[in-house]
Design goal:
Pyruvate Kinase, Chain: A, domain 1; 5 helices
Length: 283
């Protein structure tokens, strides 16, 4: 039988841990609500910009733009988006598992990391990382995503990559996140693209409009992806901390029962010893 004092100390320790996990769950829930509201606003904006780009491109097929056209370069880049912090269940594991499989099939990829967890994981495995962006998710800011977007555009145009793709967790609900691999460059039309058959008067020329829209689209698309990842992370953390809190409840109940049994056994033993001593004196 374990020492009663040790059991009691362990119960108090688990209660302290339960308070922490419960607080983290509530903080994650509050952050999740904020991220959800931002995603609702960002999703349609990015989709509509892409529709505008593809509509102008199709109507003016002679207007070529490097961010829209496939080139013959074989070199590719891969952006991996993870969280900066842990304690969010299988959030990072699912991304890194699929990313690892993708890297095994494409060993010559140049890697860009967004998020500290992915960077630390890949660095330990001696995988070449050409750029990193960490500690972005503490204070989500559009200027940070714009900086990333501008760097990716410059890399695609200056280094003559044939393709740049990105892997991230797409938010579905607090308990569901889908790992998505999406092609960033060249920009592809959406699956449900609807072409407006009306004629337009362009001011300025179509190429300038496409150039402006493509840059805006990448700015907003990177921002949307960061928001998706942030919301998915908060949902995963809230679920993980809720599970940890429930497990702490169960463990405290079991230890309390064990503590009461140990205490009762000690009392019973003391009573038997007293009774035995009294009987020995009477004899």
């Amino acid at each position: 039988m374990a020492n009663i004092r040790d059991i009691k100390n362990r119960i108090e320790s688990i209660k302290s841990t339960r308070q922490i996990t419960n607080a983290m769950k509530m903080v994650a829930a509050a952050n999740l609500r904020k991220a959800q509201n931002r995603i609702i606003k960002a999703r349609p904006y990015a989709d509509y910009i892409n529709q505008m780009i593809q509509t102008v491109k199709i109507k003016h097929s002679d207007t070529l733009h490097p961010l829209l056209e496939n080139n013959e370069q074989e070199q590719k880049a891969f952006v991996i988006v993870t969280s900066d912090r842990g304690l969010c269940g299988s959030f990072n594991y699912n991304i890194l598992k699929l990313a690892g499989k993708y890297l095994n099939e494409n060993p010559e990829l140049d890697i860009i990391c967004i998020g500290k967890k992915g960077y630390d994981y890949l660095k330990k495995r001696d995988i070449q990382i050409i750029d990193k962006h960490i500690n972005l998710f503490n204070e989500m800011d559009f200027s940070s995503s714009r900086d990333i977007a501008n760097k990716l555009i410059s890399m695609y145009l200056d280094n003559n990559y044939g393709q740049i793709s990105i892997i991230y967790n797409e938010f579905k609900s607090a308990i569901q996140q889908n790992v998505v691999i999406k092609q960033l460059f060249p920009i592809t039309p959406p699956e449900d693209l609807e072409i407006n058959l009306l004629d337009f008067i362009y001011e300025p020329d179509p190429y300038t409009i496409i150039d402006e829209l493509t840059h805006k689209y990448i700015d907003v698309e990177i921002w949307r992806i960061l928001l998706e990842s942030s919301a998915a992370e908060q949902g995963a953390r809230m679920t993980a901390m809720d599970s940890a809190t429930e497990n702490a409840h169960e463990l405290i109940d079991n230890l309390t029962l064990y503590y009461n049994r140990a205490r009762q056994a000690k009392i019973t033993k003391e009573i038997i010893e007293i009774a035995s001593g009294a009987e020995a004196i009477n004899k």
